[in-house]
Amino acid sequence: MFDEIRFNTIERLPNYVFAEVNAIKMAARRAGEDIIDFSMGNPDGKTPQHIIDKLCESANKDKTSGYSVSAGIFKLRLAACNWYKRKYGVELDPESEVVATMGSKEGFVNLARAVINPGDVAIVPTPAYPIHTQAFIIAGGNVTKMGLEYNDKFELDENAFFETLSKTLNESIPRAKFVVVNFPHNPTTITAEKSFYERLVALAKKERFYIISDIAYADLTFEDYKTPSILEIEGAKDVAVETYTLSKSYNMAGWRVGFVAGNKRLVAALKKIKSWFDYGMYTPIQVAATIALDGPQECVEDIRSTYAKRLDVLLDAFDNAGWSLKKPRASMFVWAKLPPSKMHLKSLEFSKQLLQKASVAVSPGLGFGEAGDEYVRIALIENENRIRQAARNIKKYLKE
Q: Within 10 Å of residue 207's Cβ, how many Cβ atoms?
């Protein structure tokens, strides 16, 4: 009898492709195997000491263990404004244009729940970080996917993007209300230039849609590339919000701290819905996050440098193993096309074999959409010695 009761939202969500690989990984670990794990974008480094010290100091004070503020304490929102001013020259109002979130993922989901009406359409480039698609499904909306085109340096092809986006907008019924962009991109590492955001803001004003920009990997760039912000563009705050997280830049993934900034209407909607759902992050975490954003930034460069070194080691070691990969300009990932001899396996079966025969875990590209099925995502979360060991294991596997 109870089988007849339907849970429509859950039924609209796809099965989690990564779960199958994770199950094999955990079974291997329980059996005592040493798995070299590149599968999750989970930073392995320690949070900088001055941030930890501030957390402890605040936690030891009276009256910091009570309910906090769902939109974030004022000093944290002000620190986010300072971060934008320092990094991008952008002026923001901490009262009306910034809301603190429990990481960018929570902010993204609750923003979608706040502003999506049943049946509303969002356009999401694919492959995509899963929540960029599923947040709208959870909120009762619909998603139209569009492909991404880029060159060997993982630079976005702007002309192709706007040609595809314009076609997608014209064919969308009902008219799309939101467009999601995420550069540096997860999973593909694609980067965009400031000119891209200039064109996107102009198109949004013409075609009347909102933009949600995710710059979670803004600080993790290599060589001479610098991540732009959509909020640098004149008039962007009329049509756009941007999400950022401290997870990667400050090794604070488990702390769950981020923010959404930009358009006052969207920020107000997110603030309102969060006021019904939560009482904010633990206040000492917010105080420590304030110090992270406002304090010394050498730690960010140290973290970026660590990823840069790991990237070079991985590309060299994997090339020697017989798996040549293209170098990204940003992010903590490598978007790795399957070796030619294994292309027939597609990403899920290849990921399983890599685990079972080489003790190396990666994320199958299929988990980010069908467009990713010839790739796997490799996270730079193992040290250089472990990367070299993974390459030796993979070399044996590829020779079989």
A: 15
